[in-house]
Write the structure tokens for this entry.
Amino acid sequence: MANSPLLSARGVSKTYGAVVALSNASLDVASGEIIALMGANGAGKSTLVKILTGAITASSGEILIKGRKQAVRSPAGARAAGLVPVYQEPSLIPDLDVTDNLRLADTPVEAFRHWVNELGVQNLDMGETAHRLPLAIQRVLDLARALASEPDVLLLDEMTAALPTDMVDKVLEVVRKQKELDRSVIYISHRFPEISAVCDRANVLRDGETVGDVVIEPGVEERIVELMLGAPVKAAQKTVAEPASEERETTKTAPRLRVRELAAATKLTDVSFDLRAGEVLGVAGLEGQGQDELFEALAGMMRPSGGSVEIDGKAVEFNHPADAIAAGHVYVPGDRADALLAQRSVRENIAMPFHTKPRQWGLINMKAEKAKVDMAIDRLQIDTRAQGEVQRLSGGNQQKVTIARWIALGVRTLLCFDPTRGIDVRTKREIYPLLRELAGQGSSVLLYTSELEEIQLACDRAIVIFGGRVVGEFSAADADEPTLMRAAYGLSDASKTAKPEIGV
Amino acid sequence: MLKFIRSHYWNLGLCLILVALLVFTRIIQPNYGASGLESLSRAALPFAFATAAQAIVVIAGGIDLSIASMMAVASVTAAVLMDGASEQTAIFVVPFVLFVGVCMGAINGMLIVFTRVPDIVVTLAMLFVWEGVALMILHAPGGGAAEWLKGLLIGSVPIYGVPETITQFIPKSLILMIVCIGVVWLPFRRSRFGLSVYAIGSSSLAAFRSGVSVNRTKIAAYALAGLFAAFGGLVLTASTGIGAPIPGPYLLASVAAVVLGGVTLGGGRGGLVGPIIAVVILRLVRTDLALLSVDPNVTAIVEGTIMVVVVMAGGLIAVRTRHK
């Protein structure tokens, strides 16, 4: 490493009253280097990123930029110092068009267009209002905007979460290109394949402290996981359990959920499948192939325009999420913000569905409620140190609260939409067994995931949807990534449809 | 062309409503003409400035309940300074009053930013504070106004070479409104500052992350609102010839016109053209109902109904176009 790294953080800490968010983080980035910043839930990654980009100030420690001590006090200050972040959520101004968004941050338009092309977005209408663009495009534009300002150090926080696979490849290509331009990247991701594809080193945080700085080489993944967890762990194991044979027999007659030729809105055209009791069925697909509509229709949030849904052999029609919930048919949305009351406590968030009907509006039996809530918190091992407001929990713990709510209520069918998006490895590895356990107790789980390797880890079977139809069905044993990928692109034998267009 | 319609459908719709109302007025009152337009425009003028002030703050994601009180302060300041003074003194009074307006708005903005008390609470408190200040300056309606200032509002604009039969339909007060608002608004809309105001209203987190100084922008937006409120106060003094320390009905009217004009109360969307047309529509509805000798209480009910119906219709249109 060079004597004077481009960016160097030493002993950085941040405390909020008695809560220590970051105790002793250190990070060195030389020019032309791509560093992965890794850590489990609440390890302090987000805090470190916020400190580096000036969104908050550190309680102690020093940050050197090009060898000089520098206090970055605002995002604008970080930008001036050559540090440009791309955050997890899009940061384009929703009500301004693309051109105005560029003007606002004084971004050179030509450079922006260049990077937009490199990232594979064609026919971008610069006059389009940002909030009308698809989420994936907004994220890519965010990246292009950051690149256009020619930063010395680019910080990418979960850049590829929620991107379709082909866009992920483009992003990785562009990240690699920064190396040739002698610019540095700090790459935050939970996805090992991406990290081994682009990063030189990985900086690992645990409980607010930097615990390792390892060179990326084949087979380093387990070492990183060990560092993140603080103890040697077994590799993620395929937890597929054969459903008990007698169970299979009894459910042969009427599956828990039978969906036939379901259509809704414009994107969902014709989806049919059966979900048996005690089964985890995976759903895979590229962004925007109708999976959002499928889950919303099944959860009673959107009225289907055609087809039928049967539960235990009886046709049902949900006009309101309450109908679905009453049938034990519950939904965990992809965006946690859609499910949680951010300013309310963990207890209230979990207990919310207990008292939804007007005749339950009376006094709450606090003791009974607390017992149920505590059971759910205990079962999911939710970190309740900051339980006064759900918004202060880490992303992984928030996700657990969204699931805990339904476990406390009692669930027959769990509709889980991308539950592991943007959460850390440790929580991920708690979520798969939890889903298996629920299935083992006779519940059914429908799981959509944007990370294809999860299908084999958690599911018994998987269906792949493309263009609003089911284009393939696989047993877990066959559902490896390449197979699912081919099917997701509409390349399997079942469908001869052309490659989808992803653009604006 | 289609794109223009899509992005300006609200304003185009308001124009249609306005034209329809004018035709309707002409039908129920066949001799409604130049003088009718002139008095309509003059009546709408203070409302227009109040609305412009409110619109900017609402676009920035806030709300200002102290607008009518700031107008009262501006009105009495102008009336006291011009009382008995020469016509020339008034030339200095106008910029001074505008400056006072900017200061009042900036004080509102700074209180919101530095105390972190919600805008609705701060401006509610300032509603009382500015009203008290106005009463301290002038405890009963009084004072005076320069003749040339009064003259600015009355009559029509003569244009060289154009016969009076046409120019009589262009009231001076309308031109004054367009000029005052245009001089501030057009450069504003095209500046980084203007973009920043839209940005903080649309998403203050995204704006912060894009490097916008959210606090400074917010203070400046409130200051600009203060400027428009001062214009409104000056117009009040000029049209009545005296200063009135008790705030008029401009606060709720400004919120109504802003909403009707297509500015969302959450911030980030809308402009000034829509709210100004909305002001004229609301005034004209009042005139029409008066012409039809409808009970004034019913008039208020009709105004409220129009607001809900128009905003609902606008929402429906927005949903339709998004699904296409």
Remarks:
- The radius of gyration of chain B is 20 Å.
- Residues 34-293 of chain B form one domain.
- Chain B touches chain A through 21 residues (CB under 8 Å).
